[in-house]
Design a protein that fits this description.
alpha/beta; Aldehyde Dehydrogenase, Chain A, domain 1; 15% strand
């Protein structure tokens, strides 16, 4: 294995001590575990660096983690809160690297990624102590016992991130993992290594222990070797195919994994919708970042009474987008080939594709709307295009819209446009999607750090963001101790088993089965003599 391992620490912040992977490509699905997507491209080498085997990276992380965990959530949050002003001060530098490496407009680099990461810091650092610090609990049937609920770090978390949001997605993996007390090894996509290395440099500024955060760069072979080095938790965001490979590789040990995979997310436009608002939402929701987002609007379900009028407006909106200034290009030729394949499939089915294409620079295409009676059979409807293509289909009522939406194996986000907000909320509860937005593009919810983010079905499982994101990076532990007496009497359910003991437990079951708190307490009180009989008549052994 060759990789760049960047250690964030007080020594030489963010300095590389390894080498970027060269052109090794995954030979099988398991080897692809960690490209962060389905694409492979070698990262540029760094002169004068040396190889850093996966085992060495993992050992370094394990050395750094215990002291970090021992600081406690409040101290960790206080230190990491300094990331907000650090990112703000370096925002132009960060946005420039994202733009140069990924190709997205600077507006999106700043607004979607830089601003989002600052919001994550402010929110997560404010709630982390309450979410992660130990807290007492009470036991209804054993008030003499004192349990404490604690969250424990996994140890070393491996984050595997994609290229489409090369700053905010890895940041949303690293920050909660650190707050929970873990060390982190970050494996970014081989298509966007510079952004991840810059992230490590920014993290180093706040004074993290040496070796606590490391970045390994390279293709899927590097990621697969990091999994074989046995991290304690894997956070993966990327394609469904690679996610399955990651899950399969983790299952061999086993290592727990959280997966945020793809989507063919839908927007439902009801008959009472504001057409101008809906058309603008579709045009932006389907094409931001060049459509290269797991939560972009790829399908539109529109009520038949307004379908034609909405189609005309959407086509007009799409024709007003300036691809060279406002869209990210296809990240590579393989992504462009997927776009062209989906367009060719739609054309072969006689579907309407509009507006007419423009002559554009390489890896850019005119954003299009695909519609027609057979659109649900087309690749652009059934598969994730990950590009500026939107498919539209009519529905007759809410029941049909729900059926069409839920027929997809994916379930990441959904958007509903309607003048009846209450009806929209009721409709949203019937949709199989992790996030549902009424009168907005659901993708925007990724920028709300208070809300959990994740999907169901082929869109994966596990959550980032919100309280759930912090819980995802830790495991629960219960410590129970006596409140008063050091030992107390031996328990009535201990050995030996006898008829008196069975009668006592049967009395307890009857008391607990009563309806209402008062009735239940009366039943328990009446059962106490029977419960104590086994102790008084026959000592426990």
């Amino acid at each position: 294995m060759t990789a760049t391992a960047v250690q964030s620490g007080p020594g030489r912040p963010g300095q590389p001590h390894g080498a970027d992977a060269h052109s090794a490509r995954p030979a099988a699905a398991a080897s692809a575990a960690a490209s962060g997507g389905s694409h492979t491209r070698s990262a540029p080498s760094r002169t004068g660096s040396r190889a850093a085997p996966a085992e060495d990276v993992m050992r370094s992380a394990r050395r750094a983690q215990p002291e970090w965990a021992a600081r406690g959530a409040r101290a960790r949050a206080a230190l990491l809160a300094a990331l907000a002003p650090t990112i703000a001060r370096r925002s132009e530098e960060i946005a420039a690297v994202i733009h140069e490496e990924n190709g997205k407009p600077l507006t999106e680099a700043v607004g979607h990624e830089v601003v989002g990461s600052i919001q994550l810091v402010n929110h997560h650092c404010s709630i982390a102590p309450d979410v992660l610090e130990p807290r007492p609990a009470r036991l209804a049937m054993q008030p003499h016992r004192k349990p404490v609920l604690a969250r424990r770090p996994y140890g070393v978390v491996l984050g595997i991130a994609p290229w489409n949001l090369p700053w905010i997605i890895p940041f949303s993996q690293v920050l909660p993992a650190l707050l929970a007390g873990n060390a982190v090894v970050l494996k970014p996509s081989e298509l966007t290594p510079r952004t991840a290395l810059l992230l490590a440099d920014v993290l180093a500024e706040v004074g993290l222990p040496d070796g606590l955060v490391q970045v390994v760069t390279g293709d899927g072979v590097v990621g697969a070797e990091m999994i074989r080095a046995r991290p304690d938790k894997v956070l993966f965001t990327g394609s469904v195919a690679t996610g399955r490979a990651v899950m399969g590789a983790c299952a061999q040990f086993p290592v727990p994994v959280a997966l945020e995979l793809g989507g063919v997310d839908a927007m439902i436009v009801r008959a009472d919708a504001d057409l101008e608002f809906a058309a603008s939402a579709i045009a932006w929701g389907g094409t931001f970042n060049g459509g290269q987002s797991c939560c972009s609007v790829e399908r539109v379900l529109v009520h038949s009474s307004i379908a034609e009028r909405l189609r005309v407006r959407v086509v007009d909106k799409l024709s007003r987008i300036h691809p060279e200034a406002e869209l990210a290009p296809a990240i590579d030729d393989r992504q462009l080939a997927t776009w062209n394949r989906h367009l060719a499939d739609a054309a072969s089915r006689g579907l309407r594709i509009e507006p007419a294409p423009e002559v554009l620079p390489p890896r850019l295409i005119t954003p299009r709307l695909v519609s027609g009676s057979d659109v649900t059979e087309a690749e652009v409807w059934q598969q994730e295009t990950f590009g500026p293509l939107v498919a539209m289909r009519e529905f007759s009522d809410d029941d049909e819209a729900v059926a069409l939406h839920n027929a997809s194996p994916f379930g990441l986000t959904a958007s509903i446009i309607t003048s009846d907000v209450s009806a929209g909320a009721e409709l949203g509860q019937r949709l199989r999607a992790g996030s549902v937005a009424i009168n907005d593009v659901a993708a925007t919810m990724y920028g709300s750090p208070e809300l959990p983010w994740g999907g169901v079905g082929d869109s994966g499982f596990g959550r980032s963001h919100g309280q759930e994101g912090l819980l995802e990076c830790s495991w629960s532990q219960v410590i129970e101790e006596p409140r008063l007496l050091t030992y107390g009497p031996k328990r009535p359910w201990w050995y030996p088993y006898d008829l008196e003991q069975s009668a006592a437990l049967t009395a307890l079951a009857g008391a607990l089965g009563r309806q209402g708190v008062r009735s239940r307490l009366v039943g328990v009180a009446r059962a106490v003599p029977t419960l104590m009989a086994p102790l008084s008549r026959r000592p426990r052994r």
